[in-house]
Design brief:
heterodimer; A: about 300 residues; mainly alpha; two-stranded antiparallel sheet; about 75% helix; B: mainly alpha
């Protein structure tokens, strides 16, 4: 008797389990993501902040507590301020280029015409290229001896003699900004196309009826209505431009003479070439704080709905 | 129903110019990969290869250990993408449709995680991987790639699931469908687009990921394609002293698999990237 009762209980177990899971599906469904996010990003981020107050070599999970010394070291070092300044120049530069290029492209691509999808696909191509591929492409194009760019520019007399694009102090930063913009201008463009499609046709017609010229139309109608989307694209891209590592690492490693060294490359060298995990963690914490501060500013600028 | 706009020739020309700027640089590398050794280094360069030479591809596979790296990349990208789809869809559904304490907070937490640059947690992740004995394995690369791409997936899924009318879910509930059944039979089929979007975005992101691939794998056993290409391109590497045709072939091999995926999911790529970015 007892056995039969137990057997039936066990046989019903899968069903009851299913029912139990189904009743609490909401909180249970979020659980796996929570475990992954906390375990592999949240918890390590806290560890970074803890490590930033310690002197530790790479591989040591805990070092000696030295208070704010790592931060003092950073703020007193020329390399740190140089990297910080370069990070802001790079971010500001690439975002400006992307914004200025994407507005006309988005205006043209938001119209419906034959071949539109083809154009969109072509604009997206650089987005699909891995950073190593982007580095390959541009290293080949910008080579000072046999690069095609120098050849073309000399041919059409824009420059007199071949330039060393990736090894000239001020020029190289500009080149990197342009390459970065080349890979990501499509992200900006797509967000802006989406924004343009939310503007009702009637608004444009009303403006035309009222006799607005092309410039007036753009600056008084289109641009103001597009502003929230521009801000959104800026949020998305700023945080990613500030952490840019791959292109710099593969094309210049911060050189020539530190003129393209960003916080990311400086941190990476400190952690994985010099193995100073504590100091690298302080640099990381500063990048974290700056990233969140910039995002907060954007959120504050964003119009409330 | 479908209206076309009048587009001036100038606009067409401007767009064509933009397309040339986007397509020509990668195309040039592809053309170079089909040239023979001496042809690669002729100056001024020839626009087209004299014949379609596949020797560079064979050499790239033989010399640079591309083959194991390629297989590793396929394994990592596929596994990570599938895991992100599963975990992300569940979390997105939970954030979209359920009321429980902390739901909004957890969603904001996921968005905040998205802001964390991988480089800032590289040292703790390195330590954690060593403690767990997973450093220099594909498992570790899969795990960290899942973690860093998950927030984007959750966000996109939530945006898509929010658009499913509540009435449909209510009627499914009345008909006796449980939460899981509603999710699998109503919500997912109605927002198939979200799966397309997340698949393409995540696969591309993991396939192209470089920083963690180079940091967490030191041997060939866990080397992924982008990391395998790095030694051929380093800052000190003089491209006159090496065989650039081979490098061009290796680079082409990295982009190539993305093409069928991108074309197959093209409409998701464009429409989804906009939707995911906009309807937050």
């Amino acid at each position: 008797m007892l056995n039969a009762k137990w057997a039936s209980t066990y046989l019903r177990l899968p069903r009851r389990l299913f029912k139990g899971v189904d009743d609490h599906f909401g909180p249970l469904a979020v659980l796996p993501s929570l475990v992954v996010l906390v375990g592999f990003v949240g918890y390590p981020a806290v560890q970074t902040i803890i490590l930033s107050f310690q002197r530790a070599r790479l591989g040591e999970t805990s070092g000696t507590f030295i208070g704010l010394n790592n931060y003092v070291q950073a703020f007193s070092q020329h390399q740190f301020w140089n990297a910080m300044r370069n990070t802001f120049i790079f971010t500001g530069g690439t975002l400006s280029v992307e914004l200025l290029l994407s507005i006309p492209i988005a205006l043209a691509l938001s119209r419906r015409f034959r071949g539109n999808a083809l154009f969109r696909g072509a604009v997206l191509l650089p987005y699909l290229c891995a950073s190593v591929v982007v580095a390959t492409i541009w290293k080949w194009w910008l080579n000072d001896t046999i690069g095609l760019l120098n050849y073309i520019l000399v041919l059409v007399r824009v420059i007199k003699r071949p330039l060393v694009w990736l090894g000239t102090v001020h020029l190289t930063m500009v080149v990197l900004i342009l390459i970065s913009a080349w890979t990501r201008v499509s992200v900006f463009t797509l967000v802006l196309i989406g924004g343009l499609q939310t503007i009702p046709e009637e608004v444009h017609e009303a403006a035309a009826v009222d006799g607005a010229g092309r410039f007036q139309h753009f600056f008084r109608i289109t641009l103001p209505l597009l502003t929230p989307y521009i801000l959104l694209a800026l949020v998305l891209r700023t945080t990613f431009a500030m952490r840019e590592f791959d292109l710099i690492w593969l094309l210049t490693e911060g050189g020539p003479v530190g003129s393209t060294d960003l916080i990311s490359t400086y941190t990476y060298r400190t952690a994985f070439s010099v193995f100073e995990a504590g100091y690298a963690s302080a640099l990381s914490s500063i990048l974290l704080i700056v990233t969140f501060a910039v995002s907060a500013i954007y959120l504050w600028l964003m119009p409330r709905r | 129903m479908f209206r076309r706009d009048r587009v001036s020739v100038t606009t067409y020309l401007q767009l064509a110019f933009v397309c040339v700027l986007s397509v020509l640089p990668p195309l040039w590398v592809f053309v170079t990969s089909l040239k023979t050794g001496p042809e690669v280094y002729t100056y001024p360069p020839a626009l087209l290869p004299r014949s379609l030479y596949v020797g560079n591809y064979l050499a790239a596979f033989r010399e640079f250990n591309i083959e194991p790296a390629f297989l590793n990349s396929v394994v990592v990208s596929t596994t990570a993408t599938l895991a992100i789809l599963l975990i992300g869809a569940l979390a997105g559904y939970s954030h979209s449709r359920f009321r429980y304490v902390g739901n909004t907070t957890l969603f904001l937490f996921a968005l905040a995680i998205r802001m964390v640059p991988p480089i800032t947690v590289l040292v703790p992740l390195h330590n954690l991987g060593r403690t767990l004995g997973l450093l220099n394995t594909l498992h570790w690369l899969i795990l960290v790639n899942i973690a860093f791409n998950l927030p984007t997936a959750i966000w996109i899924f939530k945006v898509f699931f929010d658009q499913v009318p509540q009435e449909l879910l209510d009627s499914a509930c009345i008909d006796g469908c449980g939460n899981m059944g509603t999710f699998a039979r109503i919500v997912l089929p109605l927002s198939r687009g979200s799966i397309g979007v997340v698949t393409i975005l995540m696969f591309v992101a993991v396939w192209n990921e470089f920083l963690m691939a180079r940091t967490f794998a030191f041997g060939t056993e866990a080397r992924l394609l982008p990391a395998a290409l790095e030694p051929l391109l380093g800052v000190g590497v003089d491209i006159m002293g090496m065989h650039w045709g081979h490098v061009a072939a290796a680079a082409t091999i990295i982009i190539l698999p993305l093409w069928p995926i991108a074309i197959f999911f093209q409409k998701y790529l464009v429409s989804g990237m906009m939707a995911g970015a906009l309807k937050s």
